[in-house]
Design brief:
Two copies of one chain form a homodimer. With 305 residues, the first copy, chain A, is an alpha/beta fold. In chain A, 23% of the residues lie in helices and 29% in strands. Chain A has a seven-stranded mixed sheet with strand order 6-5-4-3-2-1-18. In chain A, strands 7-8-9-14-15-16-17 form a seven-stranded mixed sheet, covered by helices on one side. In chain A, strands 10-13 form a two-stranded antiparallel sheet. The longest helix of chain A has 11 residues. In chain A, 44% of the residues are buried.
Chain lengths: 305, 305
């Protein structure tokens, strides 16, 4: 099942050096999920040839402009381009008022249907589910109420050992349950434990988006064993005080969160406009967590490997 | 006195082929005036190296997204970049509500002062004046209340003929009045008519922005003898019906307005996303008005020549 992430913008609030504000797109099983939508997101989609047709869910972390100023333009262009599919938007409650004062997305003439899902803040909650994927909020600590997002593949079915089907003559109708962990029970009698019948299935992958946030070790338990973690690193380590004061994080702090949570990979983003050269961000974070990479715009990361 | 125009975006509502929505900047006597502010305007300023320091006046024609979605981002970035100078915004009354729900530009902590000037609609009005320049609204006919803008240099002083100063021994304190057209009158007695004393001064130039609008011959009298006219040409001539239906104009219609008003030059813009190649717009309009040019983004036009 495909599971990848394309970065469309990863600069912090002040645009600099042609870098764009926060926006990324997850592609999972041919469905696209946009996370944050900084100004120019619709142009970035075109520039990096990300087809917008199957973007049906947009998640907005918080109401600082560099995370949502591109939303109204995108939603409006969807309409102008003749979109018919429903669109789900998840974000702080006030977001819908900001959209509605500009574009009446709830009007019957709007062309397609918009569903707005106001997000709570304070505890991690399940906000989306389909057959393959779960999305949870991650409460972050920032200047304003902010949620990160955890994209978690559902547990994939185990593989039944072919010989065991023959050995126990397993009835067809029990196969599905066994693949999802059931023991072989016939007439209320335990015939064989699941471990004997199956091998582990394909692994389930996950992706956590944590931006914007001050350094917060409590995150580690929510995103435990995440495959890929995007964590903001607005500043280098020498600006630790400024980071705390502005409710942002540093390279080293992002790396510590990655280490504590047992992440497979760390992607750094939300870079300060102070820095033209971003390589030092990666180098510094790698002193703590070697599997660190820069979330540069235009880059696609495979989550399922 | 420098008077030029830089196009930052001239595509119509649906972004296409990397072209950006409406935004342009007039530079007059070292002051910058922005007209419309489509999404991405702040990135376009950087891309085309237009210094934003002396943009103190922004004029918004109407509340279709491709003419203002970039405003809140620009206003917010001014703050983040430490702007101190006052900013004047002119536009439909509702524009300020749209800004305020996103960024509290009237808060004492905002960093710089924003003055909002709600525009009337229906008659051409003077909305800005300094020592050198006048700005008037141009009522346009579109789906929503829309104003174009006419930038008009004030009449420049005439040149006094040096020999006449000696011949009539013109007192120093009368020179300024004579340069602005007064006759030489001493002790209530006419000594010499102005025409004898002076030669014409430098010409005064003007620029008219007419977007978006349906074909409207009434415009010609408001923008009479304009030096440079920007007139929307969303469609080619073969889409005349669609243009009317959508309250837009065609190449030929824009050219007719230029001809009727006696414009020096015509700039076409607000191009439909249907067209990758824009050359046919220019070619078609030139069949009616030869001094037609494409307002391509990144281009600067000299108004004072």
């Amino acid at each position: 099942m495909d599971f990848d992430l394309t970065i469309l913008g990863s600069n912090s609030a002040v645009p600099a050096f042609g870098r764009h504000p926060s926006c990324q797109v997850i592609n999972h099983n041919n469905q696209k999920y946009m996370i944050d939508c900084g100004e120019g997101a619709q142009f970035q989609l075109s520039k990096y040839k990300v087809k917008r047709g199957n973007i049906n869910h947009i998640f907005i972390s918080h109401l600082h402009g560099d995370h949502y100023f591109g939303l109204v333009g995108l939603v409006n262009s969807f309409r102008l381009n003749g979109r018919k599919d429903d669109l789900h938007i998840y974000g702080p409650p006030k977001l819908i008022d900001i959209i509605l004062i500009q574009v009446d997305v709830f009007s019957p003439e709007f062309g397609y249907k918009v569903h707005f899902h106001p997000l709570n803040y304070g505890e991690s909650e399940l906000i989306f589910e389909n057959d393959y994927l779960l999305v949870y909020t991650i409460p972050l600590v920032h200047k304003t109420e902010t949620n990160g997002f955890l994209f978690k593949e559902k547990v994939k079915p185990r593989k039944i050992i072919r010989e065991k089907i023959l050995e126990y003559d397993i009835p067809r109708h029990l196969i599905a349950d066994i693949r999802f962990g059931a023991d072989l029970v016939i007439d209320r009698k335990l015939i064989a434990k699941n471990e004997e019948l199956t091998e582990p299935g394909k692994p389930s992958f996950s992706y956590a988006y944590c931006s914007d946030t001050v350094y917060n070790p409590d995150l580690a338990s929510i995103i435990k064993d995440v495959t890929v973690l995007y964590h903001e690193a607005t500043f280098m380590h020498d600006f630790e005080d400024k980071a705390a004061e502005r409710y942002h994080s540093t390279t080293i702090q992002a790396a510590k969160i990655a280490e504590m949570s047992g992440a497979g990979k760390l992607l750094l983003g939300h870079f300060s406009a102070r820095h033209y050269d971003l390589q030092p961000f990666q180098d510094e974070a790698r002193t703590v967590f070697s599997e660190t990479y820069l979330a540069l715009e235009g880059t696609t990361f495979n989550i399922s490997e």
